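S1.2 Input.
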Amino acid sequence: MLCPHCGSDAVEKKPVLEHTPCGYVASIDAFQKEEELVCPGCHLKLKTLGLDYKKQTTWFLCSRCTNRFQDPVMRLPCRSCGNELAIKNIDLIDSYEYSLVPGEWLKSIISIDVVLTVLKEYNYQVMSPGFVQGGSGAVHRVDVLATKDERKVVVNIFSSPALVGMHDVVNTLAVKLDFEPSDFIMIANPGLDPAAHNLSKMYGITVIEADSHGKLTEALKAEMKRID
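S1.3 Output.
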């Protein structure tokens, strides 16, 4: 923010007051006298905002050349080269900030590591994430794709502060029906909604509900023994 008269960046923003009886207009510091506001024009004390005085448009005051102005020159320095750019010469875009739900993302990452470890113990080749092409030609992203000989096992992992719901099952079902792997395992952390559980069972999706690494390891090993 620069002074349009001398180019200095020593610019202060000053509220402007108007003394209604005499019409005197100046920045607020011109009215300040110790603990009171006194008009420099007629020397009367300002009493009530909105009655004997009012606020006007804000002014900017340059400490170097003492000029007052309403529109300072706005320039932004480039962090890379240091050049200053005028506001009119730049593009303004929205900037978004995201935050992770504490603990939930860590559960998912650790769960994937547990899954990979178990599958490798059963001599599967694993990819995480995995990409599979369905009969429709669409390519789907899955959390884990495990292969051994002709067998293909897909694992999707879902974590939720409460129970994993129907929405995640429907998304999983869309991949299963299009790709048709040998086995499709859905891990729900900490558990799966009853209605979603029924839908999964109806379409042959194996559900493992686990809220700890120990439970997940035990349940996944049992499932791999069953299908191997």
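S1.4 Remarks. The first helix runs from residue 28 to 31.
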